[in-house]
Design a protein that fits this description.
This protein is of the alpha+beta class. It folds into 3 domains: 65 residues, DNA polymerase, domain 1 (Orthogonal Bundle), CATH 1.10.150; 76 residues, Rossmann fold (3-Layer(aba) Sandwich), CATH 3.40.50; 83 residues, Beta-grasp domain (Ubiquitin-like (UB roll)), CATH 3.10.20. It is 49% helix and 17% strand. A 3-stranded antiparallel beta sheet has the order 6-5-7. A two-stranded parallel ribbon has the order 1-2. Strands 3-4 form a two-stranded antiparallel sheet. α2 crosses α3. The longest helix has 18 residues. The protein is flat and about 65 Å long. The model has no long low-confidence stretch (mean pLDDT 92).
């Protein structure tokens, strides 16, 4: 209702400017009208099919229902692996809106949180037919919904995970760490996550020839282990 009220008020002034020949207002009006129709029909703004440029216009309107939504269905322990009739309804609702859903059990999550040993956690989850926690599924689904990926930097004292928008290149990934890294980017020593884990670390990956030197046009992949070379 807040979105509907806001857009109904804004479309009046935008419409007047569009009639006066303002090109930006005409473009905005073409986007606002179908979004307003959806809101009047009780559907969220995100349900309207829009091109990338049109979606950029909608984002400037500050509408709550344009934001992505992730549905989480909380079920009993016995239904955590396969879901139940109620979680199926949540899944159907999410599918109808073109968004994502996950099935979790808060009871299981509470029990997992009390286990301090990783082996005990894996055994506990396996006994319930689960490969990972509900929290892990929520995080993964959230990343996919927001088109985010994770890359890693690994040093002698610590390893860190960094979040990056999917589709960005190596210099932009370097900029997530520090603006100087992006400004003076030379190249990125890159190891794929699977190679890093399978071979047992950076040194072994180098010896096996699995480390690559990537330049400014490299599209960072989810899970990449990166070491940036730069000069400022």
């Amino acid at each position: 209702l807040a979105d509907l009220d806001s857009l109904e008020r804004r479309i009046v002034s935008v419409g007047k400017k569009a009639k006066g020949g303002d090109k930006d207002s005409k473009a905005a009006l073409e986007v606002m009208e179908p979004v307003l129709d959806a809101l009047r029909a009780g559907r969220p703004a995100r349900s309207v099919s829009l091109e990338a440029e049109q979606r950029a216009i909608v984002r400037t309107l500050g509408l709550l229902t344009i934001k992505p939504v992730l549905y989480a269905a909380n079920v009993d322990e016995a239904s955590a692996a396969a879901g139940n009739a109620l979680s199926a309804k949540v899944a159907a609702r999410a599918a109808a809106e073109g968004t994502a859903h996950v099935v979790i059990s808060a009871a299981i999550e509470a029990e997992v949180a009390m286990l301090t040993d990783d082996s005990d956690r894996r055994d506990f989850l396996a006994a319930l037919g689960l490969e990972e926690t509900g929290l892990a599924r929520v995080i993964r689904a959230g990343h996919e919904l927001l088109h985010l990926i994770t890359f890693f930097t690994v040093g002698p004292k610590e390893a860190r995970a960094w979040t990056l928008q999917k589709g960005l290149k190596a210099p932009q990934a370097a900029g997530v760490i520090h603006s100087d890294f992006e400004r003076g980017f030379i190249r990125a020593e890159t190891i794929a996550y699977d190679d890093f884990i399978t071979l047992g670390g950076e040194a072994a990956a180098k010896e096996a020839g699995r480390m690559r030197l990537e330049g400014k046009d490299y599209l960072v992949q989810d899970g990449d282990i990166l070491h940036f070379l730069f000069n400022v």
